[in-house]
Every structure is written in structure tokens, then in C-alpha cells.
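Reviewers of the previous submission asked for a worked example of the structure-prediction workflow described in the proposal, so we include one complete record here. The input consisted solely of the amino acid sequence. No template or homolog information was supplied to the procedure at any stage.
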Amino acid sequence: MSKFFTSIGKYSVKFRYLIILAWLAAVVLLVQFGTPLSSVVKTNNSTFLPKNAPSIQAAKLANQFQNVNDSLVIVVAYRNGTPLTTADQQAVQSLDFSFRSVPTVLVSKVLAVSKDGEALQSEVLSSTSQFDQTKVANLVKEIRARISASALPAGLQVHLAGQLATTVDQQSTNNSSVSSSQGFSALIILLILFAVFRSILAPFLTLIPALLVSVAAGPVVAWASKVIGFQVSFVSQILLIILVLGAGTDYGLFLVFRVREEMRRGLDSKSAVVSAITKVGESITFSGFTVIAALLSLTTATFGFYSGLGYPLAIAITLMLLAGLTLLPALLAIFGRAAFWPSKTKAQAVRDGLWGRIAGRIIKRPIVTISLGLVIFGGLAIASLGNSPSGFASTNTPAKGADSTYGNNALSAHFASSNFNPTELIFKFNSPVWSNPTPIAELQNFLSSKSAFTHLIGPLDPLGYVAFQPQELPGLYAKLGDPHSLTPIEPAGLGVPTHVYQSYRALSQMITPNGKTVLFATSLTAGDPSTNTAINAVPAVRSIVSQAATKYGAASSGVAGEAPAAYDISSASNSDLFRIVPVVVVIIGILLAIVLRSAVAPLYLVVSVVLSYLAALGLDVLVFIDIKGSKGLSFVLPFLLFLFLLALGEDYNILVMTRIREESHHHSLKEAVRIAIGATGTVVTSAGLVLAATFFVLGTAGAGGSSQVQEIGVGLGIGILMDTFLVRTLLVPSAVVLLGKYNWWPSKLFNFHAELEAAENGDATDDDPKTSIMV
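From that input alone, the workflow returned the following C-alpha cells.
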């Protein structure tokens, strides 16, 4: 294996200028001609559900009211404190006509006037796919442009509302967050690297490969998403930047520190690069492999959000690994000792340093160190039992001054709560209800009697305040025809009261054109659809709907909306967690066994990560739930925390343990631990600081108003710090000392240390015991 990495080092040094030019050309071409990653990002979690999820099946029933791919934009016109005037209504009607001239718009119509007369709600339906973020953004931009260009009466406010407009505004906030995260992360990493290296060029050289990959990975992932067919979430987009900058800088630290060490041993700059690649190339490669393997295991998830994390991040880490083994060595070979100026790189005796002295104390009291660690980590792990997942909102909140924020607030203030983010109860019959509306009345009475629902709106009161009698519907249908074909303003001579006409026209939202599918919009007694209480109420709601369908002759039924989708997301997420985690553990355990040539060490190394994970989760519970007062942690945090702590924690394990193994060929195990921790302690803690800092940036500058992203960033940052400063540099070395020669079983190194221990105990059978071994 060492010969392979020696060859990589020699080629990277020999063709250093060509390698750098090739990377620069690739990045420029990808940015110039590639597809931006933001164009394929999805912000609605429910789009990641498997097709057989109940909420997806219900959405297919609702598809008869609106094609599931079509884009629906809500327009709200209102006055504050005074009723709308005739001029206001005419202005809104003019806007509707203007919207219809937008090429993709299918329908633009006024839906309803609020009960207080101060607001009017319209909808614009477009054939633009709601899953095409770029085209949706252009649609919303065009509608807003039409509103801005219109001459509205003084005091009349018109804004967009609903999920689509909110998503577009959130995406704008997200894009700004991504840029902020990238900039702040790079700045913080540079500051940490300046403090670590105490040189001018080394920090930049360490960071350059990660910056180039963070730029290049976006177009590559966007292309791969179209070829392979995976979905990309906003969390994937922003984690890609953070992970590449953090993990990429970590891999750079592994190499740059070793290059400096080799220079201080007396090697010239180019030989130092080759020697460093030979010695740590395997560690860096297997560190990357552990992360890639963990990420690729996510592609088997049933929840598309997780499988959508796997491919993008695995692609990014693969590119980062290639850059770390080619581009960074080439840069170091070009700049040589100047890279570390003004710090010294001339040959000098290797000193223990702070971590060497700490390691010297650890090897004397390993039992005390492990006992204290178990008490602290065990106590925090118990705190993790206090976690309950927070809501699974499908969209995040845009900036306070966003157009959709005003629109959503107006919609919530002037219309029934079931008009805004409703839970939809859908029933499909075998024959049209126009000729036999009795089942509608029976359904409405049955559902209204259930304590699970409040503010129920159905075909008998589509506006929420004007009710029909069931026997009126056949006559109105015979006189007015299909509600979908009626105009916003009642034609003269119909002889139907205006409020009846408008209510009947609103039936287009409650009954399909063929009359066979009806919809009831409701608010849940359990509360807002994004809350845990509402999500937990979904099984009971589905049971009620199923009973009603059976009782009143509906051929099929379903419950659609945010709460049902969130419940299905929770189920899929939990299923994936229990199914994928064991697979990840086994894969990483195998990789550790290969790189360490040991069947024993991987066991306690994986256990150390599990303990670190539970403790970090417990600390997150204390911070976010007990101190900050959150109702629960983001549903993705436990999963991502375990995944990244296992994969990235093993990166540090590999660096520390491979160095201990290297030194174990020439020293007793205790001495090997002291030397290895002295040599790698600064590297590991610096790498941990860099990675934690990038995650903390994600939780602040990168959150973009999203509590979910904030919890992920801060939670992962806390976990990385605990893992770095306590587990990798204290607990793991103590475990190595306690296990002694058994760390390396069944490799030849096990036999070597068995002989050393026998010699130390005076049991040697050889008068000249071996003092080194090459394996």
C-alpha cells in the first residue's frame, strides 16, 4: 500500500504545474458551462416521500382538483381596517386578466371575499411544474411584476401568499445563506489555520483545494442528479459547502502537518512531500472512504431526503479526496519551505509539546481517564432520553420583510384558519354528487361532530360563512352549471343572490368537474399542522376519515396536508434510522479493520463513537430543549449527528490510530501512544476546531431563518468538539494502553508486542528481543 502512495507523491511532485492547471481548468469549465446546484434543489420535505406513502396517495386524490405538478399561486388583496371598495374589486379583476396573459398560466380567478369584507383571495394556476425551482421563481417574479406595474387604488395592498410564493422567497434567503456560510466558513478556517501554523502561506495552501472543490462540486452534483435521478434538498446544498470546507481542510491539515514534520526531520521540501504522502496518504484515503461509505449507505433510504443527502455529499467528498492527494501536494511542492515562513522548518529535535505531556499522564492513569469519561458521557447520554422530534414543516419561514410574509399574514388574518395551510379530507364516490348530495351532508355532519376537527369547510359552506342545504345543490347545478366555468362577476339576469352565486362558484375548490370527488378543508384541534401534537394526531384523523368513507359509501379516501406528510416523513425517517445505522457501523468497522490490520481495535473505536453520539445528543437536548425551550430537536438531527460523528469521528480515529500503529513498530505501546498523541494531538484538535467552526457557521450565518438548519449546525458543532477534545485525544488512547498488545490482534504486531511485554516482565526466551518490526 505504501508503494502506491509513494507513487502518488512522486507524480504529484513531478507534474505539479500540470496538476494545478488541470484543476483550475476543470473548475472554470464547470462554473462556466455547468448547471447551478440551486436550480435542482427542493425545499418541500414531502416531495421526498416514497410513492406508496398514505399522504402521497391522498395527494393523488387531490390531484383531481389541481394537477400535482401544476403551480398554484395565491394572491391576497386587502385593506387594513376598512372594507374593499368597488374600485378595489375592479383593480383585482384587472390583475386577473393581466395574469392570464402570462404564457404558462392556465387559470386566474377570484376565489372569495373575506367575511369582514376587507380582503379578497385569488388564485393563479400555471402549467409550470412546481418542482422546477427556476421556472417557479420566474413565474412568481412575473406575477409580482404585473402587480407592481398595475395602478392600484390608494390603500389597497396586494401580495402573494401560500406555499409556492413562500418557497420562492425562502429559496432566495437560502441562496444568501449559502453564500454567507461559504464566506464566513472560509474566514474562520483561515483564522484558525493562521493560529495553528503561525505562517502566512500555509493556511491559504491548505484551504485552496477545499475552496475549489466547493465551487466545482455544485455543477457536478447538479449534473449527476439528472443522470442518476436523485433529489437534492436545501440541507444537502448547504451541508455540501460546509462538509467540503470542513472535511477538506481536515485532510489538508493531516498532510501539511506531516510535511512540516518531515522537513523538521531534515528532508528537502519535495522529498518531504513524497514522504508525507507515503505515511499519511493511506490515513487520508481511508478517512475519505469512511465518510463516502457512510454517505452512500444513505442512498438505500426510503425517505428521499436522506438518499438525497448521500449522493451529493459522497460526490463532493470524492472530489475533495482527489484534490487532497493531488492538488495540495502539488502546491506544497511548488512553495516548499516558503509555505511555512516565518515558522521554522529546519532540522530540529522533535519535542513532545502540550499533547505529548498530556499523553504522558494518560498512559500512567488510563483507568482514571476512562472512568471519568464514562461518568461524564454517560450522564449526558441519559439526557438524550429527553428528546422528542420537533415538527416537520415542509417549508421554512422567509425573511420578515418578504412579500409572501405579508401575504400569509393577511390570509391568516382575514380568512378562516382552514383556508390557510389546511388539512384536507378527500372522498371519492362512484357517481356524481350533484344528483345525490345526501352523502355530502352526512359526511359534513359526521366530520363536524368529531372533536379532532375545528373550522371545517366543505361543499355545503365553501366560503366558511354561507351554507347550502343539500337539496339546493341539484337545482343550482341545473341553473348555473359547472362551478368551474363561472366568472368572478355574476352575469346579469340569473336571479341568484350574489352571496349564493359566489359561494356556489367557490364549490370549484370542493367538488371536481366530474362531481365524483369532494374535499373538506379543516383545522386540527391538536393545533398547527407543523407541531408534534398535530402530527401525532394523524393516525386518529385517518381512522375517522376511513370510517366515514366506509359508512357513507365513498370508494376511496385520504388525508392530505402538512401534518399527514410530516407523519409519513417521521415514519420513513425512523425506519431508515434503524435500518441504515447498523449497515454504516459494519461498513466503517470493516474499513477500520483493514487500515489498522486489527479485529479488536475497530470494536472499541465504533463503541467510542456511539458513546460520543449519545452524549452529544444529550447535550443538544440540554441546550435546545431545556435551556432554549424548543419543543424538540429537528427530526434529521439525531440521524445526521450519528452519521457525521461516526464517519468524521473515525477520520480522527484513523489518523491517531495509524500513527500509534506506526510508532508501535519501534516502541513499546505506552511510548508509542505518547509519541503519537504528541505528534497528532495538535492536528486532531485543529481539525476538530475547523470542522466544528464550519458547522457553527451553518447554525448561524447559514440558517437563513430555519430553526431546523440552526439545530443541525450547532448540534453537529457541539458533537464534533466533544468528540475531538475528549474522545479521540483522551479516551481512545487510554483504551489503547489498557488493551495493550490485543489492540493489534491478529496481525504480526500483536506477536511483536507480546514479545516486548514478555521481555519487560523478564519472561523473554530470546536474549536479544526484537525492537522493531516491519508489517
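The chain has four domains: 47-167, 199-341, 361-390+573-762+771-775, 422-560. We consider this example representative of the routine output the project will generate in years two and three.
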